[in-house]
Amino acid sequence: MLKSLGLGLAEESVYTALLARPTASAEELARQTGLDEAGTGHVLGDLVARGLVAVATETGSGAPADGGPARYRLTPPSVALAPFLVEQRNALHRAEAAFAMLTEQYRSTAAHPAGSVVEVVVGVEQVAHRFHQLQRGAQQELLVFLVGDPIAVPREDTDLSESSALDRGVDFRVVAARDYLDGPDVAQDVREGVTAGVQLRLADSLPLKMVVSDRERAMVPLDMSDCGGEPSAIVVHRSGLLTALVHLFEMIWAQARPLYTTTTGVHTQPPTDRYPTEEELEVLALLLAGVSDRRTAAQLGVSIRTVERRTRRLMDLAGADSRLQLGWHAARAGWLRPPAGLLQEDHPGEHR
Questions:
Q1: CA torsion angle 189 190 191 194 (round to 10)
Q2: From CA 236, how far away is CA 219, in angstroms rounded?
Q3: Which of 88, 131, 185, 268 has the most neighbouring CB atoms within 10 Å?
Q4: For residue 211, pLDDT beyond 90
Q5: CATH at residue 55
Q6: Would 347 be classed as within a structural domain?
Q7: Which of 47-51, 122-126, 227-231 is predicted with the least confidence, judged by mean pLDDT?
Q8: Are residues 258 and 130 both part of a single domain?
Q9: What are the residues whose beta carbons fall under 8 Å from the beta carbon of 76, sequence distance 6 or more?
Q10: Least confident of 38-47, 96-105, 124-133, 306-315
């Protein structure tokens, strides 16, 4: 937990042990942490020198008033750990600045004009390494095509759930070819991925395998025969080619069928309780046409409260915070099919 602030395992063990008590001696902390007393004393001395721990005294002389073994207490973490946090933030900012400078310098190097756009990676270890770099380096978005059996990156290492990316708030969208689902234990991976937050869709076929990271880099496998049978891939950086690959993903994504998980397996149709009813779709059609709730209620022969309840459930299904977001989700999910008999009248002057 405290490794990111510069504390080692022994230091963290002693520090967290002190959290549970007002004061403690080196002997007491050694028993609690399982460290030897001499090692615990050394760690305490280091923590005292760094201002994270203080010697608990009654006289202010640095020793207990009764002449017994020294006892230690934590310096309030809000005071002691703040400088470490600031330093880590500053170090991260310096690293980001160096990263940006080196990346731009690499792209602008006249001696490697092609290398700044496309690089070839050969060999199982190198391909797997670059794949994980792209996946774990994403900060905003991951776009993935999954097709066929894996070659360089084992299926278990593809990690549909990729919890670290999802924990970072990365938008993780995956299109899988139908034959990908034929692999062993894939249904379980799909279930875990969708549960974790991956948006997953199914296509009858895909033209290639691919991963796109933050629309900055993409990785596409090459034909094995191109490099003497060794797995190989190209990494594409920002360019017209990368833009075309992103456009290809978005086009196939729009046509692919969403996958849903239930207790009976993985399906391309949502469970009935996760899809709007016909009555809710009637409300949605009128809502998106700009018809007011009052006029919608009158046309459907229901109360305004019923219209509001159906609208609320539509927003819950879509995960939307506003009616504008609801309309956007409805378009993506294919809900926009106005039921027959509705929207045949114009309603000038109506407002949402």
A1: 120
A2: 6
A3: 131
A4: yes
A5: 1.10.10.10
A6: no
A7: 227-231
A8: yes
A9: none
A10: 96-105
Residues 133 and 191 in one domain: yes
Residue with tokens 């995960």: 319
Verify that 239 and 158 share a domain, yes or no. yes
Binning pLDDT at 50, 70 and 90, where does residue 347 land? Answer: very low
**Does 293 share its domain with 249?**
no
pLDDT at 109 over 70: no
Instruction: Please report the pLDDT score of residue 149 as a whole number.
Output: 64
Q: Does any domain span residue 253?
A: yes
Any idea what the CATH number is for the domain that residue 190 is in?
3.30.870.10
Q: Backbone dihedral region of 347: left (phi > 0), alpha (psi from -120 to 50 degrees) or beta?
A: beta
Q: Has residue 120 got a pLDDT over 90?
A: no
**Given the structure tokens 């990271």, which residue do they identify?**
213
Instruction: With a cut of 60, say whether residue 191 has pLDDT above it.
Output: yes
pLDDT > 90: percent of the chain = 10
**Which comes out higher in pLDDT, residue 269 or 128?**
128
Considering the domain architecture, whether residues 154 and 253 belong to the same structural domain is answered as yes
How confident is the model at residue 257, as a pLDDT? 81
**Are residues 291 and 299 in contact, defined by beta-carbon separation less than 8 angstroms?**
yes
State pTM to two decimals.
0.49
Q: Is residue 212 scored above 90 in pLDDT?
A: yes
Residue 309 is assigned to a structural domain of this protein: yes
Q: 3-state DSSP call for residue 276?
A: coil
Whether residues 261 and 287 share a domain: the answer is no
Number of domains in the chain: 3
Residues 263 and 285 reside in one and the same domain: no
Tell me the residue range of the domain where 323 lies: 276-333
Claim to verify: residue 195 and residue 253 sit in the same structural domain: yes
Strand pairing class (118-122; 171-177): unpaired
Residue 109 located in a structural domain: no
**Strands (DSSP E) found in the chain:** 24-25, 53-56, 71-74, 118-122, 141-146, 171-177, 199-203, 210-213, 217-221, 232-237, 257-258, 260-262, 265-267
**Radius of gyration (Cα) for the chain, nearest Å?**
29
CB 247, CB 233: distance < 8 Å? no
